Amino acid sequence: MMRYQPGHRWGMLTLVRLLENPKLLLQCDCGQLITYTFTQLKHGKRSCGCTDMGQSIYFIRVNEYVKIGRTRTIMARWATVQTNCPYEAELIRVIPDTSSGTEKWLHEYFQYLHKQGEWFKYTEEMLTIIPPI
Ligand SMILES: [Zn+2]
Description:
Shape: elongated
Order of helices and strands: EEEEHEEHEHEE
Number of helices: 3
Structural class: alpha+beta
Low-confidence stretches: none
Bound molecules: zinc ion
Distance between the termini: 43 Å
Number of strands: 9
Strand content: 25-35%
């Protein structure tokens, strides 16, 4: 079981440390800490559950730009962005289970940084902003 080192990744999950076998303490890219067993990972657990709860807002950063969008399948969307991009695409934030107005609100809030489509110039506030809806 010691073949996995802290930092090992399964989808959105990063290994924080091994707990009593067969449990692992993991941190999801949305920030949530969670304990799974190796069996759960083997059966496809790739997030804390934030991506199973419906439409989520994602922030995917590529260099100084960030794509802010909404999807039910964050891992697939992330993979699509990465496939179409020569630079590293980093999932920097997930806001789980959002209403339909949240994405629109965020796009308007960050309008002054708008580049094109769903792409905006990065600002640190993207990591902390809490939409009102
Ligand atoms: Zn999560």
